[in-house]
Amino acid sequence: MAGILKRKKSMNHSSDNLNQETDLDSNNLENESNWVDDGDDNFSISQPSSLPNLPSLATAKIKNSHTLAMVETAFLASTGSLIWLINYYFPLGPILKIFFPIPIALVYLRWGNRAAWMGALVSGLLLTVLMGPTRSIVFLMPYGLMGIQLGYCWRRGANWVFSTVTGALIGTFGFFFRFWLFSILLGEDLWQYVIIQVTELVEWLFIKLGILNQPTFSTIQLLAIGLIIINSLIYLLAVHLVALLVLDKLGNPIPRPPRWIKVILDYD
Fold first, then answer.
1. Which residue from 10, 100, 133, 175 could staple onto 143, CB 3.0 to 4.6 Å apart?
2. Residue pair 134/117 in contact by the 8 Å Cβ criterion
3. Other CB atoms within 10 A of residue 114 CB
4. What is the DSSP letter of 51?
5. Overall pTM surpassing 0.85 (yes/no)
6. Which pLDDT tens digits describe the chain residue by residue (268 residues)?
7. Residue 258 region, left (φ>0) first, then alpha (ψ -120 to 50), else beta?
8. Is 164 exposed, middle or buried (0-12, 13-18, 19+ CB in 10 A)?
9. Helix, strand, or coil here: 268?
10. How many CA atoms within 13 Å lie on the side-chain side of 9?
């Protein structure tokens, strides 16, 4: 009996020691877990003070760029409309006419395709309010469309031959579009007046050259179309020269001219 009691006391003593050791281990684990949690708490406190500033700065820059694009597009669109308006009421010959497509082309160079289309539409709407829908349509076709075409070519570095020829095609189409529109509004065929003027010019040339033949009607029409295309080519070349001088000063240069133009203008 005495031996059994001794064994029970020793077992109770060992179990008490085990309980004390487990209590110490659990206290150590709690202290370690508290240290880790404290580190997490410190990290969670320091994180919001530094990181959220980054997206706010990015969104502010995006908003500022969108605002600047909208303001510049509206300003250049109104500039194109104002040049058209001044030239209509106070015509100064071909001086102001050269600047018709340049504001829309500058919008394309600075802000891209969508802004250029918006600028052309805003110019048309402004001219619709100021002068009526007919004049606004005549501005958009061809000069609004020509400004988008020139901006597209200049932004992608196209050579002058390509941009001039494509612009001349748009200008020729716009010329016939205006004649078709005004013929409908006036109820007369305005093309006949062009044929009469070209016929008189051809007859004068035949007399000066000593040619006794009478020009045919098809020859006169082809000559009239050729003169319109040549006029559009000369106009686009003048637009390129003015844009070369103006847009370089504004920090939006266009592709460099061909070598023969550099030689004529002594331009480096």
1. 100
2. no
3. 12
4. T
5. no
6. 444 444 444 544 444 554 454 454 444 444 444 443 444 444 343 444 444 454 566 676 666 778 888 999 999 999 999 999 999 888 877 889 999 999 999 999 999 999 999 999 999 999 999 999 988 999 999 999 999 999 999 999 999 999 999 999 999 999 999 989 999 988 888 888 888 888 888 888 888 888 777 888 888 889 899 999 999 999 999 999 999 989 988 889 999 998 888 888 777 6
7. beta
8. buried
9. coil
10. 6
The whole-angstrom separation of Cα 210 and Cα 87 is 41
Q: Which CATH class is domain 64-265?
A: mainly alpha
DSSP state of 255: P
DSSP secondary structure of 87-131: HHHS--THHHHTTSSHHHHHHHHHH-HHHHHHHHHHHHHHHHHHH
CB of 139 within 8 A of CB of 84? yes
Residue 153 CA to residue 158 CA, distance in Å, equals 5
Report the distance separating Cα 196 and Cα 83, nearest Å: 32
Amino acid at 92: L
Ordered by start, the domain boundaries in the chain are 64-265
Taking the C-alpha atoms of residue 51 and residue 159, their distance in angstroms, rounded to an integer, is 48
